[in-house]
């Protein structure tokens, strides 16, 4: 008796519609976790359509994804011409001329149950605390363009636990994962899908290519990007639009020549009607201007971008219209949507690939048989859509907590109504500087504090439990922590030199 005979309802065929980062991350994950004999995996993509990716910045969870696939990090960085990332620098967001850093990792050290922020705020209100960046290894290293991976320096050294992520070329990343997936049995079909056929249950029964070829599968993964061929067009799931909270709806992107100094962070510079990203790679710098079409024209947005490049443009400007929001259901019947087909969070905090990774991880934990149990589908949708809302609130914070009054765009963002959950977080913070991570939300208390503090939100007080530590001891502890951070940064090598030594692209 075969395994299939034991479970006649097992999914035996999977069709992934669309390539790019979402499609090939899905193919690589399923090939890795299901193995070569569980189900036939086919990926359909068209070279004519191309991918949306214009250069990717990630968050530290991307390292977990690579480890799950068994990818060797240096080889991965070489193949994608990548670099390392310690956080995000925000320029002109709170007010013109002000800069702050959102670091990976934590501030300070474990203070025995109470957040480090409480002790920092206590000294800050006395006018004695240095800048918050003095207590972050990532912020200090970023400001000096330094980087290294963790080393065994003892449990008390910040060098023993360095949180970091990656920058890489999105096109090269998809190509890299394609090779990985095809080597493990995934079959790629070239072609444009011109029709989607539903069966008698209303499930997707087949997709038809322009060539006339018909591909049938038990399970379909919609990675078709903003077109949402299956989850949207075929199954009719509407789109929940968050433009009233996140008003940017277009981006223009162009790469430019790089520089000798390679900063280990993404830079986000606020502009009059949006913001500009800067992502340093080994062979170029990725740049883009995310903006509100209601406040600036394409030509004006492009002019702003081109006027603020580090070097010569290496391609023509490329425009990407988008809507921030999500599908009403991201798993419907025998179709699950991943990537842009499920929804879109603008790239302000580099969450696009995380949403693919998170969706994949949760889907594999709830992997269906051909019965497609509705209770499982409902649970998946609830969890994923909650995650969208939690990330949405964090992004809104950047726009709303601003002092800028220099344009109609910022006037709108500063005065717009915000979701109740975010309003509560802001009220709690303003009272005693407390920030809390809700359940399993992506961004932790360090991230919330970094942005609230960086956006010049100042609490009225601090956590009163911080008074349990004597004032002199608090001063000594924070001075010691800041000194350890400085010494650790001094020890770290230059970021570009580190890449040249370990993972330079050919």
Explain the overall architecture.
- One of its GO terms (molecular function) is nucleotide binding.
- FAD binds at residues 19-22, 340.
- Pfam families: Trp_halogenase (PF04820).
- Keywords: FAD, Flavoprotein, Nucleotide-binding.
- With 506 residues, the protein is α+β, with helices and mostly antiparallel strands.
- It folds into 3 domains: 3-55 and 169-239 and 323-372, FAD/NAD(P)-binding domain; 86-159 and 392-498, FAD/NAD(P)-binding domain, CATH 3.50.50; 250-321, Alpha-Beta Plaits, CATH 3.30.70.
- Helix content is 36%, strand content 19%.
- It is built from 16 helices and 22 strands.
- It has helices at residues 3-6, 20-34, 61-69, 73-80, 116-125, 137-143, 170-183, 229-234, 298-306, 352-365, 374-400, 408-415, 420-432, 445-454, 471-491, 495-502; strands spanning 13-17, 40-45, 56-57, 83-85, 87-91, 99-103, 165-168, 187-190, 193-198, 204-209, 214-215, 219-222, 239-241, 250-256, 266-271, 274-280, 285-291, 318-321, 325-327, 331-332, 335-337, 343-344.
- The strands form 5 sheets. Strands 6-5-15-16-17-14-18 form a 7-stranded mixed sheet.
- α2 (20-34) runs parallel beside α7 (170-183).
- The protein starts with a helix and ends with a helix.
- The mean pLDDT is 95.
């Amino acid at each position: 008796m075969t395994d299939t005979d034991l479970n006649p309802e097992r999914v035996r065929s999977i069709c992934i519609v669309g390539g790019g980062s979402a499609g090939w991350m899905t193919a690589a994950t399923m090939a890795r976790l299901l193995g070569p004999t569980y189900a036939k995996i086919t990926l359909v993509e068209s070279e004519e359509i191309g991918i949306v990716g214009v250069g990717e910045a990630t968050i530290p969870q991307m390292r977990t994804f690579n480890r799950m696939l068994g990818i060797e990090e240096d080889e991965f960085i070489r193949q994608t011409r990548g670099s390392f990332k310690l956080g995000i620098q925000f320029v002109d967001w709170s007010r013109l001329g002000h800069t702050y850093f959102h670091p990976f990792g934590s501030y300070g050290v474990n203070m025995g149950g109470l957040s480090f922020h409480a002790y920092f705020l206590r000294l800050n209100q006395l006018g004695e605390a240095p800048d918050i960046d003095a207590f972050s290894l990532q912020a200090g290293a970023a400001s000096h363009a330094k980087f290294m991976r963790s080393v065994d320096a003892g449990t008390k050294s910040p060098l023993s636990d360095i949180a970091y992520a990656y920058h890489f070329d999105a096109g090269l990343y998809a190509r890299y994962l394609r090779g990985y997936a095809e080597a493990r049995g995934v079959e790629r079909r070239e072609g444009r899908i011109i029709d989607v056929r539903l069966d008698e249950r209303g499930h997707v029964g087949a997709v038809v290519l322009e060539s006339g070829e018909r591909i049938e599968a038990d399970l379909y993964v919609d990675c078709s990007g903003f077109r949402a061929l299956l989850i949207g067009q075929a199954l009719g799931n509407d789109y929940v639009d968050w433009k009233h909270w996140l008003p940017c709806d277009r981006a223009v992107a162009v790469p430019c020549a790089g520089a000798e100094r390679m900063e280990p962070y993404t830079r986000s510079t606020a502009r009059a009607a949006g913001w500009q990203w800067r992502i340093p790679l080994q062979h170029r710098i990725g740049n883009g201007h995310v903006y509100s079409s209601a406040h600036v024209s394409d030509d004006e947005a492009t002019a702003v971008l081109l006027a603020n490049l580090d070097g010569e443009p290496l391609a023509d400007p490329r425009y990407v219209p988008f809507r921030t929001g999500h599908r009403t259901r991201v798993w419907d019947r025998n179709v699950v949507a991943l990537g842009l087909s499920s929804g879109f969070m603008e790239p302000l905090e580099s969450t696009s690939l995380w949403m693919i990774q998170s969706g994949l991880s949760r889907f594999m934990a709830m992997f269906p048989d051909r019965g497609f149990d509705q209770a499982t589908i409902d649970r998946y949708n609830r969890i994923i859509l909650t995650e969208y809302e939690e990330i949405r609130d964090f992004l809104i914070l950047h726009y709303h907590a601003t002092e800028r009054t220099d344009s109609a765009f910022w006037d709108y963002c500063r005065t717009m109504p915000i979701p109740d959950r975010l309003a509560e977080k802001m009220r709690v913070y303003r009272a005693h500087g407390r920030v809390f991570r809700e359940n399993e939300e992506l961004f932790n208390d360090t991230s919330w504090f970094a942005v609230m503090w960086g956006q010049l939100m100042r609490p009225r007080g601090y956590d009163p439990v911080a008074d349990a530590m004597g004032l002199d001891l608090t001063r000594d502890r924070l001075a010691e922590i800041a000194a350890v951070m400085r010494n650790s940064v001094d020890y770290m090598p230059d970021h570009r030199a580190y890449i040249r030594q370990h993972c330079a692209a050919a």
